[in-house]
Specification:
Layout lengths: L7 E7 L6 H9 L6 E7 L6 H7 L6 E4 L5 H11 L4 E4 L4 E3 L3 H9 L5 E11 L2 E6 L7 H4 L6 E3 H7 L10 H11 L3 E13 L3 H5 L2 H10 L5 H23 L1
Parallel strand pairs: 1-2, 1-4, 2-3, 6-9
Antiparallel strand pairs: 4-8, 5-9, 6-7, 6-8
């Protein structure tokens, strides 16, 4: 019998995530769209994270537990193991909406070589604080919340994965490369993922997401927000240009 590859490959990178990872795994178990594989890349946890993962082996397709060179190195390991058409990365203290994969399938099944992203619900002390991920057709990188982002696996093969020399901005660098190479970005106006503020979750936010939340909460001015976006984007464009020379 010919093996049929899953449509989605979902990757979670974790390390000592015993307090949150079960909620992440449960959000995959409860998906209305079932054709996916779930890959967990663990950095060698010393708490009960691995016990929790193994207890949920009915959901987890692949588990790798070993030391890595950082979060982006771990994500690249997951991408190398992926066999689905579309790849999503959900962190170990984030969780999907129950219909997240179904909503992404409706769009991705009729197009190829794309990046799809949607809305992300932001929690602060277990209370809904904000929904982020607004669409800007000319500047899609500013509107992408990474837990909601799904990428065609063919793009990783053709254009490369996360550049691990960037310790905190490899996700933005990746999307910038896609954007400059004219990859099609598609916004889905549905809540796809959720993340909890505090601890690792808030420190993992991209700088744009972090400042977007602060701006909407009137913690920084419009001038500061726009100014940072312009300066940071210019720096990354220079890095990209000189890496091609």
């Amino acid at each position: 019998m010919t093996k049929v590859n899953p449509y989605f490959s979902i990757i979670t990178v974790c390390y000592n995530s015993e307090k949150t990872i079960e909620r992440t795994i449960s959000s995959l178990r409860n998906q209305t769209f079932r054709n996916f594989e779930y890959i967990i890349i663990d950095g060698g946890s010393t708490d009960s994270t691995l016990e929790i993962i193994k207890k949920n082996k009915d959901v987890v397709s692949v588990l790798v537990s070993e030391k890595d060179e950082g979060i982006y190195d771990a994500m690249n390991k997951g991408i190398n193991l992926a066999s689905g058409e579309m790849v999503g990365i959900i962190n170990s203290d984030d969780w999907y909406e129950i219909d997240a994969l179904e909503n992404m399938y409706k769009i991705s099944s009729i197009q190829s070589n794309i990046v799809i992203h949607g809305l992300c619900r932001y929690f602060n002390n277990n209370e809904i604080n904000q929904i982020i991920g607004y669409h800007h057709s000319n500047l899609p990188l500013y509107s992408i919340s990474h837990p909601t982002c799904f990428v065609s696996r063919s793009l990783y093969v053709e254009k490369g994965k996360f550049n691990t020399k960037y310790k905190i901005a490899a996700d933005y660098d990746l999307l910038l490369r896609f954007y400059l190479d004219r990859v099609k970005f598609i916004f889905v106006e549905s809540i796809i993922a959720n993340f909890q503020n505090g601890g690792a979750s808030s420190s993992r936010l991209s700088k744009f997401e972090f400042l977007s939340v602060k701006f909407r909460n009137n913690q920084i001015s419009r001038f500061e927000f726009v100014g940072f976006n312009i300066v940071y984007s210019f720096k990354l464009l220079l890095i990209y240009f000189f890496s091609k020379v």
